[in-house]
Amino acid sequence: MPTRIFALLVGLMALPFGACVPASTGGGGGGGGGGLPPIPDTADAAEPEPDAGEPDVGGPDAAEPEPDAAEPEPEPDAAEPEPEPNDTITVATFNVRRFFDTVCDTGRCGLDEYERQYPPAEFDARAQTVAYGVRTLDADIVLLQEIESQASLDALLEYIDEGYRVAVLGELGYAASLDVVILARRGGLVRVVRHADDRIPRPSGGTTTFSRELLEVHLDLDGRAIIVTNGHYKAKNNDDPDRRLAEAQATRRILDAVAERNPDALIVFGGDLNDTPGSAPLEALESGGDWHRVAGELGNEAATYEWNGRMQAIDHLYHLEAAGGDYVAGTARVIRDNPSGLARSDHAGLKATFELP
Predict the structure, then answer these.
(1) Is 227 a member of any domain?
(2) Residue 315 — pLDDT band, cuts 50, 70, 90?
(3) Is the pLDDT of residue 109 over 60?
């Protein structure tokens, strides 16, 4: 037996029973020291880091920070501060164009007639279209014209889904009347004043009434008074300019009296006034300089309606500068989704921002 083999056998026989020979670390790169490498803790190793999918904004060689290592746990009082109160409010006006309901009140609802009787499915689709227009305006207070009835308003509210808690209809009540509405998603309703039954003097003599309700709504927003009024003056079909001027003059008297009783309120008037800058009705509203037509800063871009092939500004918003609050310069915008108007109406919307008192 070779000497080396004999020596190895002798050495093995000298080991205590049950002992084992250390395993070799094998060749290459492992460094000294025997034993198997430790088994990794697979409970954490299989879970990616919370931000493992985020791009490495520090560059390809930047170390990934521990998820919350740099951010101490917030103290109980270290919650984020409450946001500053919103000191502005947005107001818009929009003539939706003849939103009739499913009942033919006049008994004349043919294709060539003024009133339209919508079958239920078409009525539902029409409500959704008007609601789209209101959502597009995205205003805190919306003055709408040409809503026929409470049924039309209720259908509209079902699809707006924008939290308009105040919804007031200025219903005239005659067959196929197209009425005004004021919606508000901020502020609580204080009171409603209606002027449809007011007898108003004509410049040429005699008296008349407003063509539609002149709807005045008082709101309270965290102790701040907001008064908005919606008007829809006589149309130029079967024109009666004297009546339209009477409406403007009466509006001015009414709102001046409102301002005198509410000197700290934000007072905004708007609607489809069916006349253009420089016309007698608008001059009557603006005389003395207290009432500011906010879209005046837009110039020719203030047009909201096409009449006899020409774009005209007939939908307006006014702010009483002598009262509380203020118009935020540069915020007036005409809003349309096609060259003719908004939401399949022949009118565009007009929107502006006002500072609260």
Answers:
(1) yes
(2) very high
(3) yes
Is residue 99 within 8 A of residue 153, CB to CB? The reply is: no
Residue reference for tokens 């420089």? 278
Q: What is the DSSP letter of 180?
A: E
The DSSP result for 108-139, as a single string, is: --STTSS-----HHHHHHHHHHHHHHHHHH--
One-letter amino acid at 225 equals A
How confident is the model over 237-250, as pLDDT tens digits?
A: 999 999 999 999 99
Which residues is 269 bridged to in the sheet?
Answer: 229, 318
Report the number of distinct structural domains present in the chain: 1
Instruction: For residue 320, give the nearest of 278, 277, 258 by alpha carbon.
Output: 258
Q: How would DSSP label each residue in 210-242?
A: -SS--EEEEEEETTEEEEEEEEEPPPSTT--HH
**Main-chain phi, psi angles of 43, to 5 degrees:** -60, -35
CATH number at residue 246: 3.60.10.10
* Buried b / exposed e along 301-333 (16+ C-beta atoms within 10 A): ebbbbeeeeebbbbbbbbbbeebbbebbeeebb
